[in-house]
Amino acid sequence: MLKTHFISDLTPTLDGKEVIVAGWVHLIRDLGGKKFILLRDKSGIGQVVIDRNSQAFQVAKDLTQESTISVKGVVKADKRAPNGVEIHALEIRTLSVAKAPLPLDVSGKVKADIETRLKERLLDLRRPEMQAVLRIQNSVVKAFRETLYSKGFIEIFTPKIIATATEGGAQLFPVIYFGKEAFLAQSPQLYKELLAGAVERVFEIAPAWRAEESDTPYHLAEFVSMDVEMAFADYMDVMHLIEDIFVNMVEYVKKNNEEDLKLLNHELPKVSKPIKKITYKDAIELLQSKNVNIKFGDDISTPELRTLNKELGEDLYFIIEWPASARPFYTKRKDSDPNLSESFDLIFRWLELVSGSTRNYKREVLEEELKARGLNPVNFEYFLKWFDYGMPPHAGFGMGLQRLMLMFTGLQSVKEISLFPRDKKRLVP
RNA sequence: GCCGCAGUAGUCUAGCCCGGUCUAGGAUGAGGGCCUGUCGAGCCCUUGACCCGGGUUCAAAUCCCGGCUGCGGCGCCA
């Protein structure tokens, strides 16, 4: 047996009990006649004491940092120990010896550049800070799923190898599919809409790919997209849903990841319903009043969003009702003003986290909107044909997980969040 | 892709402006020694580096040019 307890299971009440713990050698403090090993497992770091007289002493002599070991020992409650409890080793089994020196200091004494960290990513992911990020991400995803489950959504899985571009715009990665040209999906957009036409409420958490030049702390060639589509609903309905999701995610992380947040020295932004909404038109006017050179129809780019964030004084805000021309063909125009659309972006400070809209659900309208963007409806027949058979009105949104995680961790780059980021220059590890 | 900044041992960093005293300093790691309560353990010894190529100069880590790589901002992009 290699392990009977996780390190965090050990409490002073177990005093005198024989246990087996296993993990990585985080740090060794060698006092000559006595050694202390800080042993790390998924649950935390605990102290193993090795006395000169024990059998374990000889084995411990050859240990290196990050080697994996299994320790049979007796739990001792001792106020001198870091958690008030420690293990006095009887027997140590070396499971795997780590080479020294390590290419990255896991114990945190010497900080490494992001470049080194990504290159030596597995060691980086052993750092307590990165483990905290992973646990927070797990909570975020769990709260997202559970909010949607509670509202009757079901999780779907759509094809990631597709025949044609979904939205125009973004560049796709081509793949050779049994001798034919195909592409990696940039978004599950069209499939999730179709599925909402079958089961009403769907969501998907899956990778998406964009072959863009974008070289910023907010872009990845491969990212995780959290997508939702809801039939018999409009953009206002899905914004309410987003508010519920965000409130739940923040509450869940606050409750379950207190230690992780402390470790990252991060405080979550306050999120309460309703989240501030500003129309695109008002946003443009506000920017113009601050002497920003911008006009109706322009995209609101990062520098402008920074200004908006400052002026609004809100961490989280919706920009709603974008010009229809600035949105993809499936976005429904506003009945009262066809130049505008029933759309929204949710912005965290100056970073777009979510983008959504009411969708067009009438075939004629979709065909017109495709043509208006220079796209050929014939190429979208696989999608359009289903609109002949009772497609309900629907609305939905997509959210970038790595960007969302910046809000939950205080990290500065999605490359730090992604375990093995893919960008213009990185294909390994 | 553009602009700015940077690249020094396994890792992190000082030195670069004002070229020579740099035989490149420190931390951490690694090897060795001392040490039975460390908790960033301590003390002593040892080890290991100027991104690549060209140029200026008596002399280049230091100045100049080009390349590569990274970071930030922007662009492209949801």
What does this protein look like?
Belongs to the class-II aminoacyl-tRNA synthetase family. Type 2 subfamily. Homodimer. Its cofactor is Mg(2+). Keywords: Aminoacyl-tRNA synthetase, ATP-binding, Cytoplasm, Ligase, Magnesium, Metal-binding, Nucleotide-binding, Protein biosynthesis. It contains 13 helices and 18 strands. With about 425 residues, the chain is an alpha+beta fold. The chain has two domains: about 90 residues, OB fold (Dihydrolipoamide Acetyltransferase, E2P) (Beta Barrel), CATH 2.40.50.140; about 290 residues, Bira Bifunctional Protein, Domain 2 (BirA Bifunctional Protein, domain 2, 2-Layer Sandwich). An eight-stranded mixed sheet has the order 6-10-11-18-17-16-13-12. A hairpin with a 3-residue loop joins β1 and β2. α4 packs across α6 and α4 packs across α12. It binds one RNA strand of 78 nucleotides through β1, β2, β3, α2 and β17.
Write the layout of secondary structure elements.
Layout: E1 18-30, E2 34-41, E3 44-51, H1 56-61, E4 68-77, E5 85-96, H2 114-119, H3 121-124, H4 128-150, E6 154-155, E7 161-162, E8 174-177, E9 180-184, H5 189-199, E10 201-209, E11 222-231, H6 235-256, H7 258-263, E12 276-279, H8 280-289, H9 302-312, E13 316-320, E14 333-334, E15 337-341, E16 343-348, E17 351-358, H10 363-372, H11 381-384, E18 394-400, H12 401-409, H13 414-417
Parallel strand pairs: 3-5, 6-10, 12-13
Antiparallel strand pairs: 1-2, 1-4, 2-3, 4-5, 7-9, 8-9, 10-11, 11-18, 13-16, 14-15, 16-17, 17-18
This protein binds one RNA strand of 78 nucleotides through residues 27, 29-36, 38, 47, 49, 51-52, 64-65, 78, 80-82, 100-105, 107-116, 120, 167, 169-171, 186-187, 210, 212-217, 219, 299, 301-303, 328, 345, 352, 354-355, 398, 400, 413, 425.
